[in-house]
């Protein structure tokens, strides 16, 4: 069968690549084409456009780049029409993918959504579009099942693919000494900085993270270099700061870190699965218009996946105007020096891990998709 998959950012690229590998096991004749990144390409996807060339983050930036977004949608529609797949599989990326879902459904194609867009956080009204244009929704968080049940829309939950990624990561038995030697780092405990995979995130969050360096001289600060970023992207922020950057080793870095400062997103859950205490940071210096829009549309009490899955404050979230130098210094100091605070957070992590279930999610999802397609043909 022919599968057309669309992922719009690094986390989607990761999950889609693992799904594709499992699809090829279930369907040895599978042909896969789509929009994504290097990981999807390595998994055997014929990449039409790389997510680095299409990702647009934030309310204001979407408005500014509306013309580019529309042009990409037109190009994607035409490519789908020409290739005529058996199914279009959409991975998160709601602003783009819901438009593609409507088009694909209109021309008679099967539409699967893998990893629900965060409608429960931003725009519950879009559930109507999901019900109208998506044949099957495959969710990766337990709380999403209840959310969609409220709207009388059945979904398919098979676990969380991040559990797979963490379970299969390399260098799991690596010691701290091995890690710092392999990456040319000094022998000092590490605070990891996960500043996001998009340039806008660096602009609004990384400078505040770097202000912590003088307060914790006994630690070394190490940035997890994102695959979508190059050295020149970090250069304006780190040129006068004693900080290291390690590329392509995020899981190794986080697992060896004493603590982490993490931009809200998938990385918060990855950090929890690796059982490293963290402070969640979100858009500390965003324009006022973005803050107003954020407060207007956000529908949930928490923004991090960690707290949403836990159902309470497992980790501290410093959002918007609360991401200040004093607040961040205080919270980072707390998780580094307060043994009871660290233990409480790690216990919450253990409960989250229990709720997400065992590894094997990617294979389970692939099996459900292939079976559904075969039964419908």
Automatic annotation (TrEMBL):
<keyword id="KW-0441">Lipid A biosynthesis</keyword>
<keyword id="KW-0808">Transferase</keyword>
<comment type="function">
    <text>Condensation of UDP-2,3-diacylglucosamine and 2,3-diacylglucosamine-1-phosphate to form lipid A disaccharide, a precursor of lipid A, a phosphorylated glycolipid that anchors the lipopolysaccharide to the outer membrane of the cell.</text>
</comment>
<keyword id="KW-0328">Glycosyltransferase</keyword>
<dbReference type="GO" id="GO:0008915">
    <property type="term" value="F:lipid-A-disaccharide synthase activity"/>
</dbReference>
<protein>
    <recommendedName>
        <fullName>Lipid-A-disaccharide synthase</fullName>
        <ecNumber>2.4.1.182</ecNumber>
    </recommendedName>
</protein>
<dbReference type="Pfam" id="PF02684">
    <property type="entry name" value="LpxB"/>
</dbReference>
<dbReference type="GO" id="GO:0016020">
    <property type="term" value="C:membrane"/>
</dbReference>
<dbReference type="InterPro" id="IPR003835">
    <property type="entry name" value="Glyco_trans_19"/>
</dbReference>
<keyword id="KW-0443">Lipid metabolism</keyword>
<keyword id="KW-0444">Lipid biosynthesis</keyword>
<dbReference type="GO" id="GO:0009245">
    <property type="term" value="P:lipid A biosynthetic process"/>
</dbReference>
<dbReference type="GO" id="GO:0005543">
    <property type="term" value="F:phospholipid binding"/>
</dbReference>
């Amino acid at each position: 069968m022919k599968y057309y998959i669309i992922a719009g950012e690094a986390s989607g690229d990761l999950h889609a690549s693992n799904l594709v590998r499992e699809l090829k096991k279930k369907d040895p004749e599978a042909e896969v084409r789509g929009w994504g990144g290097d990981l999807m390409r390595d998994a055997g996807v014929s990449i039409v456009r790389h997510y680095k060339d299409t990702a647009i983050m934030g309310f204001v930036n979407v408005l500014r780049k509306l013309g580019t977004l529309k042009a990409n949608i037109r190009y994607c529609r035409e490519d789908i029409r020409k290739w005529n797949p058996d199914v279009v599989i959409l991975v998160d990326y709601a602003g783009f993918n819901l438009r593609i879902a409507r088009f694909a459904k209109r021309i008679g194609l099967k539409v699967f959504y893998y990893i629900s867009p965060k409608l429960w956080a931003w725009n519950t009204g879009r559930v109507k579009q999901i019900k109208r244009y998506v044949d099957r929704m495959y969710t990766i968080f337990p709380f999403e099942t209840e959310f969609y049940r409220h709207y009388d829309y059945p979904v398919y939950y098979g676990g969380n693919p991040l559990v797979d990624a963490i379970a299969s990561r390399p260098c799991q038995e690596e010691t701290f000494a091995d890690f710092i030697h392999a990456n040319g780092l000094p022998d000092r405990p590490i605070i990891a900085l996960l500043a996001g995979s998009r340039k806008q995130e660096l602009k609004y969050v990384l400078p505040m993270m770097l202000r912590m360096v003088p307060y914790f001289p006994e630690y070394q600060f190490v940035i997890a270099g994102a695959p979508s970023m190059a050295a020149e992207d970090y250069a304006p922020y780190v040129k006068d700061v004693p900080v290291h950057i390690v590329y392509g080793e995020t899981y190794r870095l986080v697992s060896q870190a004493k603590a982490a400062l993490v931009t809200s997103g998938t990385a918060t859950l990855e950090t929890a699965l690796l059982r490293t205490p963290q402070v969640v940071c979100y858009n500390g210096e965003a324009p006022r218009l973005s803050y107003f829009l954020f407060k207007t549309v956000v529908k949930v009490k928490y923004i991090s996946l960690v707290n949403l899955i836990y159902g309470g404050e497992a980790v501290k979230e410093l959002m918007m105007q609360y991401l200040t130098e004093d607040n961040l210094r205080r919270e980072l100091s707390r998780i580094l020096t307060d043994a009871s605070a660290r233990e409480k957070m790690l216990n919450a992590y253990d409960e989250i891990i229990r709720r997400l279930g065992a590894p094997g999610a990617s294979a389970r999802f692939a099996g459900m998709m292939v079976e559904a397609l075969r039964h419908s043909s």
